[in-house]
Amino acid sequence: MYRFLLSRQWVILTLLAVLLIPTMIKLGFWQMHRYEERTARNDLVAHALEAPPVPVESLTAPGEKITTRERYRTVTAKGRFDTDREVVVRRRTDGDDNIGYHVLTSFVLNDGKVLLVNRGWIPADGPSQTAFPKVPAPPRGELTLTGRLMPDETTEASGIKDLEGLPDRQIMLINSEQQAERLDARVLGGYVVLKTPEPKNDTPEPIGGPGNENAALNFAYAIQWWLFAAAVPVGWWFLVRREKRDREAAEDVEPAEAEPVTV
């Protein structure tokens, strides 16, 4: 009755179904793992953003690395901006994907340590980006700023190559160790994305806060893969039943066609 399952065509189809089921189940678990990772990351970001501001030196020091729990924490610092050795970070985009620079300015604390502050985005002056752009000046004198604490940028984490031979005062990555060597100063680990004082007029465009990763999409993909895995044996059995009916119908027709015609 089901001897056709031993044919080459059906053996291949059955093996394909057998391979698809565990593959789809595995893909579903992978998507669920991504869902759990993204949910945990969103929870960490939300916790960091909701935490009350703390002095920056309570979370970082020269040579220290910013952990995932400290990332996006709001910190405060008291000191003054030093624009003499200000640099710009190349190939950064604004909210509309326009290419420009991020402005990285040293903020000298009252104890002499240096905090790197990303003051925001400015457009590129031209396509070549070889000359140092016109950078709006920060507030003068002593002030207290607040910002989001960020870890040092690396090629491994960002995918941005740290190119050499760049124009003067232009960099690719914000890295406190590199800047400590350039400035010959005690630079706090990580950097801060400026929140206040708020930009006014022609000051750099503020950098938006972190958004939530779409964890629900991974959850939906996981359910989708598992539904596909459940559908494979159902579809296989449907094809088997249809093949069986077609063969039985063909067998019923053949004898009738073979009967001799009587006169």
TrEMBL record:
Localization of this protein: Cell membrane; Membrane
Pfam families: SURF1
Keyword Membrane assigned: yes
Swiss-Prot/TrEMBL keywords: Cell membrane, Membrane, Transmembrane, Transmembrane helix
InterPro entries associated with the record: Surf1/Shy1, Surf1/Surf4
Entry's transmembrane regions: 219-239
Membrane topology according to the record: Multi-pass membrane protein
Predominant subcellular localization, coarse grouping: membrane
Domain of life: Bacteria
PANTHER family recorded: SURFEIT LOCUS PROTEIN, SURFEIT LOCUS PROTEIN 1
Family indicated by similarity: Belongs to the SURF1 family.
Annotated protein name in UniProt: SURF1-like protein
Species in which this protein is naturally found: Streptomyces violaceolatus
